[in-house]
Design a protein that fits this description.
The chain is of the alpha+beta class and about 475 residues long. It is about 30% helix and about 30% strand. A hairpin with a 2-residue loop joins strand 12 and strand 13. The protein is extended and about 105 Å long.
């Protein structure tokens, strides 16, 4: 076992490469479902009371929240978040000059910022669902909306040390046929980080920088010690057995987690499941001083270890209310997102249908109501699905009246799916999609094809009207004279 001095990255001597220490920590762990997270503060900030984890420990969401809270309680409130699409610890060990080739490193700016900072923290293994929720946690901690920026926009922005700001820089990542392309992309991202840090230094505003990824860029197959040594015993099982079913279920669960798909919100009454709700994104916006302030409710609603508060919800055979309770949303201490659904029998179609009657916002004693019964409905035995449900862009949710407070709000749900009745086996039933058969794209294709057919028909008609000349000019004979009266 390595000594504790080798496990603590902050006590490694300056002569030892930073990424070599990072590699030593990772030797005991599995990088299959984890991403690294690097955090540091600007120059002149005293060291924060942060202790790095032990070797091989995987940081979960609650522990990551604790790290962020401790850092922001003492450190600067201006946060610069570098969010890469994919990241794994192998990116640093392969391209960070960890084997003595410091001149060949792809991270000179990141390494320089970490070495020059008096307060830094390296988390080599963070559960990537937890890293996905970093924006939401920082948003809740700072009580401000994230600003997605680039270096050019940042140079025109004037920050204030007294007011918190969350600046997000999205950076790409992709691996081509050769490994050189990945290194070039990482080098380009490091240059962007260097530009941002230079701009922040010129503004003389203290900041906290975080560099992490949304999901791992590589998957490593881990073997147990017995399997690696070729020893141990195993039980042969018949196909379709209990253990096979459990392994298949666990496999499906891990596939969903890697794809960023989590279980829907469930509301039960006496252990009977009545309402299911899922969305890729839930966001609300309010109009203040002529500008829209956005807030993302997704990290507080879905994800690993997230249990939204549903008190106030109810459901019976004909009506249901799903109440999602939040705190400190856009300056409102109490905030509720309510989905009111109902089902009834229609004689014309001779079947039962369920509708999303309204989506309500309750905040500090005020209620804003959006009507959704005109557009959001499905057969009672189906679920309803739509790629985009919003109140402002091709709206499916409409304020109930001109004087309703809903006119000051915007709702946006992406990849939205809901089912209020006839839920079986804890899963959504067949989805009735909001997209009709003749979508705008199909209509445009039909109209374009019709126009081309008309042009072709007109052209053929004109060609058929052409007549061959009945007389020709002989160069050896007299010139043909055509009288004007002919």
């Amino acid at each position: 076992m390595a000594s504790s001095g080798k496990l603590n990255l902050f006590r490694v001597s300056a002569s030892v490469s930073f990424f070599v220490g990072l590699l030593n920590i990772l030797n005991t762990g599995n990088c299959d479902d984890q991403v690294p997270l690097l955090m540091w503060t600007s120059d002149g900030i005293t060291q924060l009371p942060q202790s790095p984890p032990t070797a091989g420990h995987i940081i979960g969401q609650q522990q990551l929240i604790s790290y962020l809270e401790k850092a922001l309680d003492v450190g600067p409130q201006n946060v610069v978040l570098f969010l890469q699409d994919k990241m794994s610890i192998e990116d640093f060990t392969m391209y960070g000059g960890a084997f003595g080739n410091k001149q060949d490193t792809a991270f000179p700016n990141v390494e320089g910022a970490l070495k020059s900072s008096m307060s830094r923290l390296v988390l080599p293994a963070v559960s990537w669902p937890a890293s996905n929720a970093v924006i939401g946690q920082l948003q809740n901690q700072l009580q401000t909306s994230p600003l997605y920026m680039d270096p050019e926009t940042l140079s025109q922005l004037r920050l204030n040390a007294s007011s918190p700001a969350l600046l997000v820089f999205r950076m790409p990542y992709s691996i081509g046929a050769d490994l050189v392309s990945a290194k070039e992309i990482l080098s380009g991202n490091d240059e962007v980080i260097g530009q941002v840090l230079s701009i922040m230094k010129t503004q003389s505003v203290p900041y906290t920088a975080i560099y992490t990824g949304l999901q791992p860029s590589r998957e490593v197959t881990s073997l147990s010690i017995g399997a690696a040594m070729g020893g141990g015993r195993s039980l042969l099982q018949a196909r379709g057995g209990y253990r096979d079913k459990e392994s298949e279920r666990e496999k499906r669960r891990r596939i969903k987690e890697r794809a960023g798909i989590y279980d829907p919100v469930e509301f039960k009454v006496s252990f009977l499941l009545y309402i299911l709700l899922w969305a890729k994104s839930l966001s609300v916006s309010i109009l203040r001083s002529g500008r829209w302030e956005d807030y993302d409710l997704t990290p507080s609603t879905f994800g690993e270890g997230i249990s939204p508060k549903l008190h106030g919800s109810s459901c019976d055979r004909s009506k249901g209310r799903l109440v999602l309770n939040y705190e400190n949303v856009l300056g409102h201490r109490s905030f509720k997102l309510i989905f009111a659904i109902s089902q009834r029998y229609y004689k014309v179609s001779a079947r039962r249908w369920f509708t999303l009657d309204a989506v309500e916002l309750e905040y500090d004693g005020t209620k804003a109501t959006f009507n959704g019964s005109r557009h959001i409905f499905a057969p009672a035995e189906y679920s309803y699905h739509c790629d985009s449900v919003s109140s402002f862009r091709w709206p499916l949710l409409i304020p109930s009246s001109l004087k309703d407070p809903a006119n000051q709000w915007r709702l946006s749900f992406e990849d939205f799916q809901i089912q209020g009745f006839n839920v079986t086996d804890g899963e959504f039933s067949y989805a009735s999609d909001c997209a009709s058969f003749f979508s705008p794209g199909i209509w445009m294709g039909l109209m374009t094809s019709l126009l081309l057919v008309l042009v072709l028909t007109y052209g053929l008609h004109m060609i058929m009207q052409l007549h061959t000349m009945d007389r020709f000019d002989d160069p050896k004979g007299p010139t043909i004279s055509v009288p004007q009266t002919e």
